[in-house]
Design brief:
The chain is of the alpha+beta class. It is globular, with a radius of gyration of 17 Å.
């Protein structure tokens, strides 16, 4: 009986524990491209592009290739996805995110948010942020903890 109670307590605790999942997994099934930011060297494979962005290598691929590419990266600095079929608000609902603050710059609506489904984060204006979304021209770029490349 004690084992049964312990297992029940463990299962209930796990059901309410925050899940920390990588962005490329949470956007699986979206019509999107995925970018990983790393300081690791990376050789370009078919269907994958590598671009130098500041101090990082930006490795971009289709959503289908993302799990394969991610397995080959040891030191991950950030991730982003460019989504073509959802709005920023729909993505935030999918990710259980809370908007911390927004801004609009040159016609681009930018949302800074926190999602308990993602790990980590950075402090911006005294608030913990682990999700940034930039919406414009019919697409949304989503980054964690922030968008490191362009949008």
């Amino acid at each position: 009986m004690k084992k049964l109670i312990a297992i029940a307590v463990l299962l209930v605790g796990c059901a309410f524990a925050p899940c920390q999942t990588e962005l490329y997994i949470l956007t699986k099934g979206y019509a999107c491209t995925v970018s990983f930011y790393t300081t690791d060297s990376f050789s370009c494979e078919n269907g994958v592009s590598v671009t130098r962005v500041g101090q990082w290598n930006e490795i971009t691929c289709s959503e289908a290739y993302a799990p394969i590419v991610r397995k080959s990266i040891e030191s991950l600095s950030g991730q982003s996805a460019t989504v073509y079929t959802k709005t920023a608000q729909e993505i935030m609902i999918d990710l259980s995110a809370t908007t911390i603050f927004t801004q609009s710059v040159d016609g681009i609506d930018i949302y800074y948010a926190y999602s308990p489904r993602l790990g980590g984060g950075v402090t911006v204006n005294g608030e913990k942020i682990n999700l940034e979304l930039a919406q414009h021209n019919g697409k949304v770029t989503v980054g964690t903890p922030l968008i490191l490349g362009s949008y």
